[in-house]
Amino acid sequence: MTQAPNPTYTNLFIGIAGMIGAGKSTLAKALGEHLGIDVYYEPVADNEYLEDFYRDTAKYAFATQIYLLNRRFQQHQEIIWTGRSAVQDRTIYEDSIFAKMLVKLGLMDSRDYSTYQQLFTHMSNFMCRPNVIVYLDVKPERSMERIEARARGAESGITREYLDALYEGYREFITDISRYIPVIEVDYDRFHTAEEMASVIEREYLNHNFLRKATAFDPAR
To answer: What domains are there in the chain, each with its CATH number?
Structure first.
């Protein structure tokens, strides 16, 4: 049950970023309960393209990216227009990581990628940046372990090559985005519970310990 909103977090917009299986949804839920704010989850269960995407990535890459961009933009606008504090499980900015990675792997046509970029640019004129992005640094091998452990049928086609390329994309993304949006980078494996991580993130936010360069911080300090 979500607790009463803390006045300290009025109009607070937190984005959770990270690899597939990083634990974004779990942390988003914990942060929502810990801070008493709304939670917006990544569209997975009702994603009409996800299973087809992992079955035949090249064929469904563009359609899937457009679908996710549209859904995340819808969430983003709802967060802004409701005027309430919220945490979002995977930000709209991360979609560009997947699109760029798909082009590099030869799974998306460069023409489609150009169209995707133009659409994102137009949408960005109507977006408000999160106050802070929390990046869960999970390596590709750990991501694969978690994907296999949760055994979602649609994710059975994910390869290590795909995750390696995705992780490289995330490292570039965090370096770039931290120039514009404050980033708190954490190693999820160093925390016993999502609630413990939520407490540390709250402390880092209140102390303005934002990372303009992507370097891990010590949760014990």
So the answer is: 7-206 (3.40.50.300)
